[in-house]
Amino acid sequence: MASKDTVYEPRNAFGQTIPATTITGAAGLVASAIQNTLTKQNVGAFGIFMRTGGTVATFAAMGGAFEFIRIAAANLREKEDSYNQAIGGFCAGAILGLRFRSFPAVLGIGAGVAILQGVFDYAGGSIRGYNKGPDEDEFERKERLRKNRRRPIQEFIDECGEGRGLTTALVSID
């Protein structure tokens, strides 16, 4: 999150929406090709556009709406935070809900995608966990964590006792 001292610089919503729409449209084209391949009837190569072309349009509209609304919300609010992701996620989910032709589906899927996007961004925006920092070496970080949790061997033996196969004569590390 941005600190209070920094000044928000508005971004070009249209300029960033076009690449996002193109990328998600290409992903939709791949998904449509997979759907076309798995149909029982042989509809040919143009079935990607004729039979399952709605998938391409839905993917492209979702990606474009998400990116545009996210940036527009950030520009209007003059903040870069998780709420922008949630607002964009709601619009993208609502577009997905339109395929079901039901208002509860529009609201429900929109709310679900908004929650997923907002929580994902709030938690750091990574499935792999907390971002450790680009300049910190992984080995040094793990050694620092090990030393932080390491207890002296004499303290461990005093606490557990010598009757469990541990003797002070065998342990002369330190």
Explain this structure:
There is one protein chain. With 174 residues, the chain is mainly alpha-helical. It has 7 helices and no strands. The mean pLDDT is 87.
Short description:
With 174 residues, this protein is an all-alpha fold. It contains 7 helices and no strands. The relative contact order is 0.08.
Topology diagram in text:
Layout: H1 13-37, H2 47-50, H3 53-77, H4 82-97, H5 103-122, H6 138-149, H7 153-160
Helix pairs in contact: 1-3, 3-4, 4-5
Q: Share of helix among residues?
A: 55-70%
Strand content: under 5%
Query: Which residues form runs of ≥5 with pLDDT under 50?
Result: none
Task: Specify the biggest β-sheet.
Answer: none
**What Rg is obtained from the alpha carbons, in whole angstroms?**
26 Å
Q: Which class best fits the helix and strand makeup?
A: mainly alpha
Q: How would you classify the quaternary structure?
A: single chain
The coarse overall form would be elongated
Order of helices and strands: HHHHHHH
Question: What characteristics describe this protein?
Answer:
7 helices, mainly alpha, about 170 residues
